[in-house]
Design a protein that fits this description.
Number of domains: 1
CATH architecture: 3-Layer(aba) Sandwich
Number of helices: 11
Largest sheet: 11 strands, mixed
Oligomer: single chain
CATH topology: Rossmann fold
């Protein structure tokens, strides 16, 4: 009863005015996403995936939660749901996808890892941009960050049993911009002693920090590549410096900061191509090794692209200014990836319209 039915969403999208002969490629990413069925399915490790949509602060938030069936509450509608209290033993890794929504549909954190269930949220934006706007300007960042926080603290306890003191986060590209620019400064006080992996993107805080004391225990890792997009080659080091200074302002020594904040951009490759091959497989590489990087398992990522040795836990102090090579062009230099909708490469015309004018077109 709390969820918007997917059929209703699809009906609303279908009813939206469209030009005669409008193709799927001419629809917005959000319209195309509304046509992808929701429901209950099985994760790669046998867990149950619940894919549904709820309204949070007037915004439609589509979500995926992957957990053992018996950890869901009856209200979720999951067969085999057996949890009664909202408080559980499993943590949750909440993923914010990049522009275009690719990682939401891939759900690279779906497998249970280090007693942590996977959660992915879909941006409530026509282009599926977390924070709305374009490029480094995320005009809806405040509202989106609030909706994410409220979803976790208010909606998730109605669906699945989890430990609300063990919620960690993953950002991918545009999702990393929203996470570092808006969520961390405005909402992180609701998730103390958490961890945030910022993949292929980061912003210095774009809004005032509500409680800087969270930096005393916040684990942050910045992961990029040598061929990162040009604008992000500037933005990521600026974010590293800003968050390092926030921690130092809390009295942390260089050694303490380096234990909490780490950075790596050793792999060759373009935007999010952490394995040196591709965006999708690169993001999966980082998420498969999430516990190794973020939850104390030695900091070694299996399958990271050459010339990296896989060890990514280099402290940020003294390593703020990353060394990049010329940014590789892909999708006309844009951050948008939504192969889930296009069934092919981002060079198709409908996608080019989304990419142009965003970062470098």
């Amino acid at each position: 009863m709390y969820a918007l039915s997917f059929a209703l969403l699809a009906t609303l999208v279908t009813a939206a005015p469209q030009r005669a002969g409008q193709t799927a490629q001419q629809q917005t990413a959000q319209q195309q996403a509304a046509q992808v069925p929701q429901g209950i399915s099985q994760a790669a490790d046998g867990s149950t995936i619940l894919d549904d949509t709820v309204e949070v602060n007037g915004l439609p938030i589509r979500f995926k939660i992957a957990a053992p069936a018996d950890q869901f509450l009856a209200a979720s509608g999951v067969p085999g749901a057996a949890a009664t209290p909202a408080n559980g033993t499993l943590g949750a890794n909440v993923l914010l996808h990049g522009d275009g929504g690719q990682s939401f549909f891939d759900f690279p954190n779906q497998n249970l890892q280090a007693s942590t269930m996977g959660v992915a949220l879909l941006a409530p934006d026509p282009n599926l941009f977390w924070g709305g706007g374009a490029g480094l300007e995320r005009t809806d960042g405040v509202a989106h960050a609030q909706a994410i926080s409220d979803f976790i603290t208010t909606t998730m306890p109605q669906l699945v049993a989890f430990n609300n003191a063990a919620v960690v986060f993953t950002g991918v590209s545009g999702g990393s911009l929203l996470m570092s620019g808006f969520f961390m400064p405005a909402q992180m006080q609701n998730f103390p002693n958490s961890a945030v992996e910022l993949n292929c993107g980061a912003l210095a805080p774009q809004v005032p920090f509500v409680d800087e004391t969270v930096m005393q225990g916040l684990r942050v890792h910045y992961q990029s590549t040598q061929g990162e997009l040009a604008e992000l080659q500037d933005a990521i080091p600026q974010a590293i410096v800003a968050y390092e200074q926030l921690a130092a302002g809390q009295g942390l020594s260089a050694e303490q900061i380096n234990a909490l904040q780490t950075v790596d951009n050793t792999p060759e490759g373009g935007h999010c191509e952490f394995d040196g091959v591709d965006f999708v497989s690169g993001v999966q590489t980082m998420l498969t090794s999430y516990a190794a990087v973020m939850q104390g398992w030695g900091g070694v990522v299996q399958g990271l692209g050459a010339p990296s040795n896989g060890l990514v836990n280099t402290g940020v102090v003294g390593n703020e200014q990353l060394q990049f090579v010329a940014a590789r062009k892909r999708a006309e230099g844009g951050m948008v990836v939504n192969r889930w909708a296009q069934g092919g490469d981002m060079e198709e015309e409908g996608v080019r319209l989304l990419a142009c004018g965003r970062v470098s077109c």
